[in-house]
Amino acid sequence: MSGNSGTIELKLDAPQYLFSTPAGHRLARSILRPQLPYDPHDPQLEGICKAVDGTNIMVLTPTGSGKTGYLTIYMLLMISLAANPELVAPSTKKVLQNPVMVFPTNGVEKEMELEFKSHGLKALAINANIVSAAQLCGEDLWVTAQVDVLMLCLSPE
C-alpha cells in the first residue's frame, strides 16, 4: 500500500498491461464470468476495461440497461487483479481501497448496497436516516465503514 493515498499499487518493471484491447477484453471476461450470474455485455466490458486502463468514462443509458453492472464488474475485476497480480504481468494498476459513491437521493444508495452485496462485494449505505437508526441500536456506522466495508454508498440527504 502506498502512503496515505488510499490505493494499492501492483508494480512490476515493464510496460503496463492494457485491457482496452481484444486480448484484454477476453482476459477481463474470463476473470469476471465465473463471478457473475450473467455474461458482461460488450459495452460494459469495453467501459470497464477503459476505466481499468485509467481512462475516465461516462455512461448514459436508459433505466434498467446495466449501469450498476459497470460499477459491479469494475470492482470485481479490480479485486481479482489485486488478489492475483500474476494474472497480468506486468501490472501497475492502482486499486482504490474503499471507494465512495454518492447517489443523488435517499433510497438509491440502499438499493446499490443490496445489489453490490448480491455479488459478494462488502458495501455500506449511509445517509442521515440510516445513521440515526443505527445510533438507536448503538452502532456507529462510521466505525463499521472503516473496518468491514469495501464500498461506501452515500446520499447527501
UniProtKB/TrEMBL annotation:
Query: Would you say which domain of life the source belongs to?
Result: Eukaryota
InterPro entries noted in UniProt? P-loop_NTPase
Protein name per the record: DEAD/DEAH box helicase domain-containing protein
Q: Give the species this sequence originates from.
A: Piloderma croceum (strain F 1598)
